[in-house]
Write a structure and sequence with these properties.
The protein has a two-stranded antiparallel ribbon with strand order 1-2. It has one domain (2-106). It has helices at 2-12, 14-20, 24-34, 40-50, 59-66, 92-106; strands at 72-73, 78-79. Helix 1 packs across helix 2, helix 1 (2-12) runs parallel beside helix 4 and helix 4 crosses helix 5 (59-66). Strand 1 and strand 2 (78-79) form a beta hairpin. It is mostly helical. It has six helices and two strands.
Length: 107
């Protein structure tokens, strides 16, 4: 929890400090209990997603972030990986016929 909270201090500054002021031990206890079933990878993923939030997340919001698709970097920011489009078989005779029809409409 301490690593996550340190990241929150970096991301949210005084907003995080003000929220937990005087309740640090209680926050650690509640978050540890609330996130005990999450893996380290899920927790790291959630912290990455927190960078897009203006305000620190609640425990339930953080749990939701744990289950989001991980962000990946290509060196140019985050991107989403897409699968290849399905292969389409083309009948060349039909394609040529359709192209000729289109050319007629352009004249």
């Amino acid at each position: 929890m301490n690593r996550i909270f340190k990241q929150f201090q970096i991301l949210y500054g005084s907003r995080w400090a003000t929220e937990i002021a005087g309740l640090e031990n209680e926050y650690v206890k509640r978050w540890r209990e609330g996130l005990h079933e999450m893996t380290k990878a899920q927790l790291k993923n959630a912290v990455v997603h927190c960078a897009a939030l203006e305000w620190p997340p609640s425990i339930s919001e953080f749990k939701t972030l744990c289950h989001l698709r991980p962000k990946r970097s290509s060196g140019y920011g985050a991107y989403v990986e897409f699968s290849s489009p399905p292969k389409i078989e083309v009948n060349e005779d039909i394609a040529k016929e359709e192209i000729n029809k289109m050319k007629l409409h352009l004249k």
